[in-house]
Each structure stands twice: as structure tokens, then as C-alpha cells.
């Protein structure tokens, strides 16, 4: 039977800080300890700046009332930018995907952040995602194209198809990013060149659906 050494701490304060730090994704106890000890060596002011910025972020961060992206104000910078093409909406799973696509510099439309994917196993249904507001945008008549940019997983494809059925009656272009992204890959981990080409070489959603 494999046994793991219990990490001993000489200070309850250090132990508590390490336990809290290790709750972050990808951070184990040893990495958390290194980070905590590093912070301990820094000037108190530096640690204060870090803690203040985290508290301010948690308390003051807003979500755009139009696209649900993170924002410092009611409308995010992308939606407020008049040079963007507001008739083209790129549908993404979460905020990290917005950042990934923006880093390519290839998309000049706006976004709609769903806040997840339909996943019955995880208890996530359509009503728990930002789908209703998307359908309302499409029905407003101010949208010319919707681009599906969800990860090519079973949950992503299920979500795409559900939304497609909601807006199929609209006279707009419904497309999906080209499959330069490997099946099963998450959008945020794709390199910028591949992701940029997938946006530019998008294909009609119905065509992609029939080929699957």
C-alpha cells in the first residue's frame, strides 16, 4: 500500500495559508508552500497589494449585461467598442475562450459567453446557461451571423445543436469554427495560429453537423 508523508508545519498560520493556497487549480501542497514562503520573504506592502487586489476583484468585478464577459463596468470594453462588428456573434463557453480568441487578433465581432456547456452528468441544463439572452439577441433582427466556438467535445456539440435548434428559423448565417482544433480539445489550450485560422475558415454549422 502506498503511503504519503504528512506535511508538518511549525506554524499554524503557515499551515492555514498553505491549505488555502492549495485549493487553487493545479496547486499542490508543496507548490503552495513554496508560494507562501515566497510571499513571506516579500515586503509587507507587496503582500498587502496582492491581498487588496484579490479582494477588490472579488467584490467589484462585474459581468457584461450584453455578452456576460467579465468587466469593470456594466458593458465590457468589447461590446462598447463601436469599431467591432456587432452583427457577428461568437459563442464561447467561458471567459478564457474570449481571451484566447482575442489573442489571435483575427476576430472583430463580439462575443456571447454561455458560462458552461450542457452536461446532464454534471447536472447542467440549458436553463443554467446564458442561452435565453442569446436567442433574444438573434430574434431582435440585429444579428447577421452566429459562430459556434465551443470545444469539440460531446458536451460542446450537444450545446451547439441545442442552440442551433433554437435559432434555426432565423434568417442568419450559422457557422462553426473549422476543425483545426483537435476533437476533444479545449479552446483555451489551442495555439493562436491554429485558433485564428479556425475562426477565419469557419464553415456553415449545418454542413459540419451533417459530416459528423
UniProtKB/TrEMBL annotation:
PROSITE patterns: RECR (PS01300), TOPRIM (PS50880). Gene3D superfamilies: 3.40.1360.10, 6.10.250.240, RecR Domain 1 (1.10.8.420). Residues 87-182 form the Toprim domain. It comes from the Bacteria. The keyword Metal-binding applies. One of its GO terms (molecular function) is DNA binding. GO terms for biological process: DNA recombination; DNA repair. Pfam families: RecR_C, RecR_HhH, RecR_ZnF, Toprim_4. SMART domains: TOPRIM. HAMAP family: RecR. Belongs to the RecR family. NCBIfam families: recR (TIGR00615). This is Recombination protein RecR. The gene is recR.
